[in-house]
Protein: Glutathione S-transferase family protein
Organism: Stenotrophomonas lactitubi
Amino acid sequence: MVEERIPLTVHGMSVSGNCHKVRLLLEQLGSRYRWVEVDSAHGQTHTAEFLALNPNAKVPLIVRDDGRVLTESNAILFWLAEGTPYLPADGWQRAQALSWMFFEQYTHEPCVAVARFIRGWTPADSPRRAELPRLQERAAGALAVMEQHLRQAQWFTGDDYGIADIALFAYSDVAADGGIALDPFPQVRAWLQRVRAQPRFVPMPAVTAEVRARFNAPD
Amino acid sequence: MVEERIPLTVHGMSVSGNCHKVRLLLEQLGSRYRWVEVDSAHGQTHTAEFLALNPNAKVPLIVRDDGRVLTESNAILFWLAEGTPYLPADGWQRAQALSWMFFEQYTHEPCVAVARFIRGWTPADSPRRAELPRLQERAAGALAVMEQHLRQAQWFTGDDYGIADIALFAYSDVAADGGIALDPFPQVRAWLQRVRAQPRFVPMPAVTAEVRARFNAPD
């Protein structure tokens, strides 16, 4: 019996939006991959073994069957999507998709994702909870920029759904976990629904009951 | 007399690293462009006119002669470099370059550039100065990741100098302005020197005397 060759291994935390981006695209591409669960909320990206894969101590990353490593969720999306319908072939459209992906990492994720992390993975008496009002205010600003774009476009990747949508969807879809309301953003809510309706869409796996209880508690 | 057609207009603040990236690449490409100076440190990205160009209120951005706009410094670099020696043609190398460019925006810029902004553009009694020790500590961590890469590679863009080097150079070269010492990072210092030695390299323009005095003052 010959062991099956798996071309790609993902190291990721399933309930991290940055990691879920990679799973969502791989599922939509119908790719075969192995998933190695890494609990980045509890230090597992700081072991010597993990740091040998990524000295920057972050998930997700992918390892090819020859051992080569690629880090940074949005760079992984770009590499996986090359030559597929999830990344436009036109240079200007690709640049616009990348622009939204840099917006996601610089302006969106550091408030939407960080507010969710603080609410779900730090204790109720954590001093970091003092950061929440400011993060939630900045998150609303990022969502307002998305709302404005969506008044004149269906997607962030160009004419069609693609990797910039996946990048922005991941944490926008769980914004409520960070105490961020989507009610003021009807275009964003409609776009989230369009993403969920895409073929082979998979939702982020459920968090633990402990984390869910923290999400449900008031700030 | 026919007015000369300029294909590209850059809106940027000359002494911002994110904006200088775009100038440096355009100079190295030998491209013709017009530069519109925008003082983002004093609110000029929040005028109605500017927000019509970029609702996210950030420089740099480029405007093509047909009015189309592209935002986000690293997306601009990617678009400008497509088909030139500053961006590898190989898909895996491109993805590695993008990985470093996402690292730059997520892990490097938010400490290296923000420490510089606080030291140079906020008053000596600004409460934001309390953020400096933590930002400087995180900056050292980002520089250590770069140092490790440079022990086994000359560049961040692949086999040759290119846009990931430009992206990381911009604020690394002025790290001292943020009170961040490069002494512990000999590989980074040697790489900075290699970048400065590239053909058609242009340094960032000088800051005002007022900002320079703030940089030179102790924290």
The CA atoms of residues 18 and 38 of chain A lie 13 Å apart. DSSP finds eight helices and four strands in chain A. The first helix of chain A runs from residue 17 to 29.
